[in-house]
Amino acid sequence: MTEANSRSITTNQQGLHEKLDEIVTKHLQAEFKKPIAAHTQRAFDEVNERVQAFDGPVILDSCCGVGESTANLAKLHPDALIIGIDKSSHRLEKHDVEYKQAEQGQYILVQADLNDFWRLALAANWQPTHHYLLYPNPWPKAKHIQRRWHGSAVFPYIIKLGGQLELRSNWDIYVKEFARALALSGISTQVEAYESDEAITPFERKYWASGQSSTRLVVKL
Ligand SMILES: C[S@@+](CC[C@H](N)C(=O)[O-])C[C@H]1O[C@@H](n2cnc3c(N)ncnc32)[C@H](O)[C@@H]1O
């Protein structure tokens, strides 16, 4: 289990990044042409077969880490197939040992880079009903804005994939920036504080145990 002494976010940003609008607008107008990595293509092809054969709602749990949230979401949405995606094999390998839940619901964990996976999912016409993005890496240094999902070239594909998107972070500016990036795409949404009696991911549990709070947005794309 993760320890309960998570340091709070340290950033040299006071508010939204000064270049946010410029960066997001550039990405909204350009196609993301970087070639797809072979390992993500293979991982996608495998899971795509299962998704195409599945007759029910498909839900994405992007940046799923050890997949605890994926298993929790499968319990919450028993009629759906939940796809948890993370690039870290180290995290995914911990799933069966430490984070497997009761045999309820159906889910698949995939090791893949989301910069490629989201583009493949869109090209294969996936239409997730829900898309969870829980505690993505915040990249709080201003110079790393393009590593945040809303500052990355793949951002327009998150929007095009559609469904009800839920983003949670322990850094409120991340969520506010994401909301601004959505606004630049013509989608308005509310940012709100989020708390619950039960954490559904290890990072969420760790942040709350060390006195940090969560901010989220939920939006129908
Ligand atoms: C802060 S952790 C949160 C994990 C989990 N959602 C949780 O709350 O416990 C962020 C996760 O994003 C994953 N990640 C970062 N960049 C990624 C990428 N390009 N593709 C897939 N996963 C990525 C990392 O491997 C890491 O597991």
TrEMBL record:
<dbReference type="GO" id="GO:0008176">
    <property type="term" value="F:tRNA (guanine(46)-N7)-methyltransferase activity"/>
</dbReference>
<keyword id="KW-0949">S-adenosyl-L-methionine</keyword>
<keyword id="KW-0819">tRNA processing</keyword>
<dbReference type="InterPro" id="IPR003358">
    <property type="entry name" value="tRNA_(Gua-N-7)_MeTrfase_Trmb"/>
</dbReference>
<dbReference type="GO" id="GO:0043527">
    <property type="term" value="C:tRNA methyltransferase complex"/>
</dbReference>
<keyword id="KW-0808">Transferase</keyword>
<protein>
    <recommendedName>
        <fullName>tRNA (guanine(46)-N(7))-methyltransferase</fullName>
        <ecNumber>2.1.1.33</ecNumber>
    </recommendedName>
</protein>
<comment type="function">
    <text>Catalyzes the formation of N(7)-methylguanine at position 46 (m7G46) in tRNA.</text>
</comment>
<keyword id="KW-0489">Methyltransferase</keyword>
<dbReference type="InterPro" id="IPR029063">
    <property type="entry name" value="SAM-dependent_MTases_sf"/>
</dbReference>
<dbReference type="Pfam" id="PF02390">
    <property type="entry name" value="Methyltransf_4"/>
</dbReference>
